[in-house]
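Risk register update: the risk that structure generation would not scale has been downgraded. Supporting records follow, first protein first.
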Amino acid sequence: MSSNITKDQQRAELLANQKAIKLTHQDEFRAIQFRRIFFMACTCLLAPVLSDFLKAKRKLWINNHKLDTDFLLNIMIEEFGKNPYFFPIYMENTESILKAALLGRTAVSHGFLPMILQEGQSFLSSWITLCHLVDHAEEAGKLQKIFNHLFSGIPDPSGKREDHYTIPEFVELSSTPRVMSFTEFEKSLLVQVYMMKADAEIFGPALRHYLVNEPDGDKYRNSVMDTQSYLMDLIERCIRRAWWPEKTRTLKCLYHAKDTRNLLFHAEIIPLLDRHENLFESWIAVCDLDILKLFEGSARILQTKRQLATLVLWTISIWIYNFERFGYCLL
């Protein structure tokens, strides 16, 4: 891509290229599973490390509780552009590593399934190297185990149980106005696991199913599974079409669902924790709209919400156990 075009133009060009590719059903299913694993690698391991590093460098507000990898990587790219010795370890290809890491995050958040299959190894490698750049070898090792398992079929030879997440500096034993408790943080991870499951496996595919059956549905017959773009297109259709039933309520539901999606992929962990039941309901409400009638999707999202509610009553070690036992399939 040309370096003279804007970030929005780059994103549009990237999206157009990805929409030209249609994976087989089997490859699409595999890419969706990779997407979920990469999402949790970003959320549980990479983002806390980047956040702590930037706070230590005084490049991030100390009270920031967002673990948005996109936001954090863009700060790093900007700071590295000003100072090539911004990181404690110098590498000649640092800029390429940062850009690959950011592209990986974009592919995961916007459901670029072809790119996830084609470049998944590169993305995960860049995240591993980035952990080394900020001098966090332990997290790099955890990401390397995921890499080995996914791409080489190599299990962890040590057989040791360990936490597959990193505790950021704003998490302590008990909560205060500035920090979260361990329990709150662990529950927020569970919320993100299950919301990602609902988005990637249920809500996104359900919206695409509706859109491909519209008169202009051919343009959705691709392997970009981006809930955000689906919802934006539905909002535009609702605004344009005077005959859509309960137009005001429909628009409200669609906007609420889009806001929920953005909270998830920008890792707004406090509202996700505090409002997750209502956020799940926003996706259920869209599926239940008279114009969409995606009732199977609605039922499955409700089931996922109930599974989360049950698990939150248990200990977080349950999902860590599943994360290890089932080969990073994430519940």
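Supporting record for the second protein:
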Amino acid sequence: MVEQERNMQFMQIAMKYLPEAKELLDRKGIEINMEDLQPVLHLLTQVMSDAYNLGKQEDGQ
């Protein structure tokens, strides 16, 4: 799988959980819009990529 395709899948996964994250923030009284969430989504995709690469390394050993 090409890295760009994998990153797109990671973004889809992050978006799947976005409503739940927004609800948690709303309950805490933290108002946030999609523009403010973009850096968080980017961070989540980086975490997923690092986890993927770690699993790939461990599988190769």
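The two ends are 20 Å apart (CA to CA). On this basis the risk owner (M.S.) recommends closing the item.
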